[in-house]
TrEMBL record:
Its main location: membrane. Negatively regulates growth hormone (GH) receptor cell surface expression in liver. May play a role in liver resistance to GH during periods of reduced nutrient availability. GO terms for biological process: late endosome to vacuole transport via multivesicular body sorting pathway; negative regulation of growth hormone receptor signaling pathway. This is Leptin receptor overlapping transcript-like 1. It comes from Nothobranchius furzeri. Belongs to the OB-RGRP/VPS55 family. It is a multi-pass membrane protein.
Amino acid sequence: QCVSSFCLGEMAGIKALISLSFGGAIGLMFLMLGCALPVYDKYWPLFLLFFYILSPIPYCISRRVVDDTDSASNACKELAIFLTTGIVISAFGLPIIFARAEVIAWGACALVLTGNVVIFGTILGFFLVFGSNDDFSWQQW
């Protein structure tokens, strides 16, 4: 059943994509507030952008390499999950280390950690929504 040139399945995919975009924007807003507010005025937390970019890469590579037909766990997928976990934990640890070393203020650390939760939740949501091999998979892009 199509409604005005969009099928219902595509509408769900578009709504999910818009929601995830909104989540990413909110997360980046928290990161920028932790950097750019005049009270804090330190831009060291922007190094977390590297973690945001690096976090999905191991899982994407393992999905391309691994054949999903076997139900047994394999080393490539587990290594990808391990590396992704290490990247995510490092992204949460870096602002805390900056705050403990008094490079940034604790208020900036709280804003950056809030941004981390939102951004990594958005990345997880992207893979949950678009990770299956159905009509609107992320692998098409």
